[in-house]
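ok trying this again, last paste got cut off
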Amino acid sequence: MKDSGKRIILLGDGMPDRPLEQLGGKTPLQAAKTPNMDRMAREGSAGFVHTVPEGFEPGSDVTNMGLLGYDPKKYYTGRAPLEAAGMHIPLGKNDVAYRCNLVTLSPTAEGVFMEDFSAGHISSGEAAQLIKALNDYFGKGDIEFHPGVSYRHLMIWKNGNEKAETTPPHDITGKSIRNYLPRGDAGERLNMITTEAQIILKPHSVNVKRKDDGKSEANSIWLWGQGKAPSMPKLKDFRGITGTMISAVDLMKGLGVLAGMDVINVEGATGFIDTNYEGKMRAAKEGLAKNDFVYIHIESPDESGHQGSIENKIRAIEDFDAKIVGPLLDEIARLNGRAIVLSDHPTPIELMTHTTDPVPFAIWPKLNGASASAPAFDESIITMNGSMKIANGYELFERFTEK
C-alpha cells in the first residue's frame, strides 16, 4: 500500500538516562515496561541522533527546534522568546523576554540554596495570583509579568537588556545560588527585580496557605533563558508540509506558532505525571486527520529526572508508552503513515539536569535502505552495531518526513 505521507513524532522529553545502582545497573528506560516502543525498535529502523549542536547548551529549546526541522545555529535567539510566541505575547524589536520560574529558595547558615525549581509544582491557579501581584507592582514601567503553566512564566523587559549570564534553576537544585545569580550588564537590574519580587511573594496569601498546608512556598522568582524575538519561516513554506503541535508547555507551543503549525491546547495538560494523556492522544488523532504530521510532546519524564525521582520517571515512561505510543501506533498504521519515537536530550536521575549525550530513536515501519533494528528501545541502541547515526536533529526531521 502506498505511503500516505502522514507522520507523527512521539517525543518523551528527557527519557534517556544512565545506569543506576538502584535499578541493578539498568536505566529507567530499560527498567520500564515499554512494549510499544520496543515493538517500534524491533520492527522498525533504530538509530541515534546528536540533538545538541556544538557550542549550545542541552536545553529543550535548542533540541526541539532542531527536531522540528530548524537548524538552531540559524534560528535560535533564546528560550523565553519562544515561550512568548506560545503565550501570544507580542515582542517589539528591542523587547527582551526572560523566563521567570516561581521557585523555592531556602536560607541556611551556609547561604541561600535552590530548594525547588518548581515551587512544589505549584498549580497554575495559585501561580497566576502571584504573577498578577508581581505585575501589579512592576507593570507600570518597563517590566511586565505574564502567567504561564504551573511554575513557568515570563517577564518582558521593554527596550530591555539581554546581556546577562543566567543559569536555568533546574541545573542548581540543592546548590547555593551565590555563584549563579545573573551577571553582566543586565545583572544588577535583574537581581534588584528578584529581590523586590521576594518581598511581594513571601507574605502573599497564596504562600501563607501553602506554608500552612505543608507545601513549598513560591518565595522567589528566577530569571533566565532571555532573548529577543526570532524570525523563522513557516514549515509550509520551508518544507512544504503542515503540522499540529500538542504539548503542555509554552516552549513547545511557541515553536509550533512560529512554525505555522496548528497548536492544540489540551485541557488538563500539566507537563507532569498527572497530565491528560487521553486528551493529548485524541488531539493527536485529530491533528493527523487534518495535517501532514503531528508533534506530540510529553514533559513528565524530564520533570521526574529534574526531581531525581526514579519512581516517577519510570511511571512517566510507562504511561507515555501505554497511553500515547500504543494508541497512536494503531492510528498511524491505519493511515499507512510513519511514526518516530525519541527524546530531545537525556535527563539523568543522578545529575538532575540535561546532558549533551546523543539520544536513541526508532522509526516505524522500517525506512527503505535502513535495515538496523533493535531488540528494545533504550540507550543500548547508541552503541549497537549497524545503528543509524544522524549528526543533527534537523537532518533526522528531513529523513523522517520524506516519502
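PB: full thing came through this time. The longest strand covers residues 96-108.
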